[in-house]
Amino acid sequence: MISFEKFQNKKIAILWYGREGKSSLHFLLQIGVDPKNITILDGAEKIEGLAENFDYLSKKFTLNTEFNCTFGGNYLDTLKTFDMIIITPGISFYHPKIYPYRDKITSQAQIFFEYYQGKIIAVSGTKGKSTTATLIYETCKRADKNVQLVGNIGNPVLDYINIENLILQKDEYVVFEVSSYMLDGLKKNNYISVLLNIYADHIDWHNGFDNYKNAKLNLLNGSKYNLVRDEVCEKYDFTKQQTKDLNINTFGHRGMYIYQEGQFYVQKKPLFDATSIVLKWEHNMMNIAAVIGVCDIMKIEYSVLKETLATFHGLPHRMENIWTYGGIVRVDDAISTTPESTIQAIQTFGDTIDTIFLWWTDRGYVFDELIDVLVKYRIKNVILFPDSGKRIFDVIKKKDEWEIRIFKTDDMKDAVRFAYEWTSHGKICLLSTASPSYSLWKNFEEKGDVFQKHVKALA
Fold first, then answer.
1. pLDDT of 242 over the 60 cut
2. Which among 315, 274, 307, 303 has a CA at the least distance from the CA of 445?
3. Count of domains in the chain?
4. pLDDT one-digit tens code per residue, 381-422
5. Beta strands 68-71 and 328-332: pairing type?
6. Same structural domain, 404 and 297
7. In the predicted model, what is the mean pLDDT of residues 89-93?
8. pTM over cut 0.85
9. What is the DSSP letter of 67?
10. Per residue, what are the HEC states of 133-163?
11. pLDDT of residue 19
């Protein structure tokens, strides 16, 4: 019988009380942890709706005790007093006050992998994981699988565990979009893992690229089957023995599952072409090749995937053609928040791009290759926002042979007007930012929505 005994009679800290922290508290109360043994730690001085939330939980679980909380600047000073620390992805495992207690740290992802009894299909990669995870989910649904989509998409993962009867979920599947934050230090056993790519990202959170890379590669440990992009295996010199030990099949331009010149192949045998696929662009085709591999493992007919692809449009803010007027095409690729993903977007549209938006949080990225790509495609207009905008500007100015119009601003409305004025007829204005947007907006979705609003206002 499966039990939650390891949580009982332990002093447990929940780090940060956002959506996931609330879910963690709810989970602990559901499995019978005494609220006197739970402490919420959060750097905020005040959390909106906290009293109402606590009142709701007290009534739901018939509790006659107040919850323990530590808020404000000293919220990490008592970590040594706890037996277990449930961390949320928003705060780094490598924080100097947290890292010394790493042996006490767990996470919602870790708990989910330990207790969920169904089959987990884990999907990760620097870019493309949301779209790929959603496509796998939609294909499984069409194949009449009992499946859920969890992780970065949707509600916190612990909300999907049937606490009252864990074994009831043994015939279910979940497609779990797993971030590098979740993977760092994760120990798991699962059904299928899909690793799409590894580019430099979240370097500040992981305290360096090596830790980030190792977190991503950790996805492959403990999987029954692994599907890995060919370029990842080549770049990180996977040996034949490693490939065999990890049960890896590769996909991409080489390997078991291939996309080349508009055609998909399995073991070099033609499968179907891309003519009826709604999704466009080369990177999506690479990821579809991975989904073919998932279908093989799950014994889903290829025709089911083909039917799904005929109607699957992808997700918002991912190379989304949102408006054409005045002969100018505006493309929302707000999801691209690393130089590598923006390079991918530029290579997709090539010399049809006239104007590009680049910016935001300075995370130590190297922009030299991105600038080389801007030069190669002779992009005439570059709109730069703080903070990384200054670094990009400095690199651009070193390219004496390149004539370019640079506009620096922190206002999206002004940026869109500049793009409208200077983008040539028949050309593309591309929002693909090469850095995150935290200094101005809370996430890439909000950034993309603001871009779309001002674009459509000019119609």
1. yes
2. 315
3. 3
4. 999 887 666 667 777 766 655 678 889 898 999 999 999 999
5. unpaired
6. no
7. 84
8. no
9. P
10. HHHHHHHHHHCCCCEEEEECCCCCHHHHCCC
11. 84
Measured in degrees and rounded to the nearest 5, phi and psi for residue 295 equal -60, -40
179 belongs to a structural domain: yes
- Residues near 55 by Cβ (< 8 Å), separated by ≥ 6? none
What does the alpha-carbon distance between residue 23 and residue 30 come to, in Å, rounded to a whole number? 10
Cα distance between residue 55 and residue 348, in whole Å: 52
Reading the block at residue 272, the tokens are 């179907």
Average confidence (pLDDT) over 242-263: 96
Helix, strand, coil: what percent of the chain each, to 5?
40, 20, 40
* Structural domain harbouring 340: 320-457
User: Which of these three, 289, 309, 329, is where a domain ends?
Assistant: 309
End-to-end CA distance of the chain: give it in Å, rounded: 63
| Mean local confidence (pLDDT), 343-364 | 80
Say if residue 171 is in the same domain as residue 298: yes
Separation CA 149–CA 121 (nearest Å): 10
Q: Considering Cα of 352, then 354, then 359, then 364, what sign does the dihedral take? A: positive
Q: What is the mean pLDDT of the chain?
A: 89
Strands of 88-238, DSSP E:
105-107, 119-124, 147-151, 173-177, 190-195, 223-229
Q: For residue 217, give the amino acid letter.
A: L
pLDDT mean over 342-362: 82
Amino acid at site 169:
Q
Question: Who's near 187: CB < 8 A, 6+ residues apart?
Answer: 110, 113, 221, 222
Token match 């890439």: residue? 444
Q: What is the pLDDT of residue 390?
A: 66
Q: How confident is the model at residue 362 (pLDDT cuts 50, 70, 90)?
A: low
Question: Shortest CA distance to 434 belongs to which of 200, 218, 231, 222?
Answer: 200
Structure tokens at 422: 């200077």
The single-letter DSSP state of residue 322 is E
> Do the domain assignments include residue 97?
no
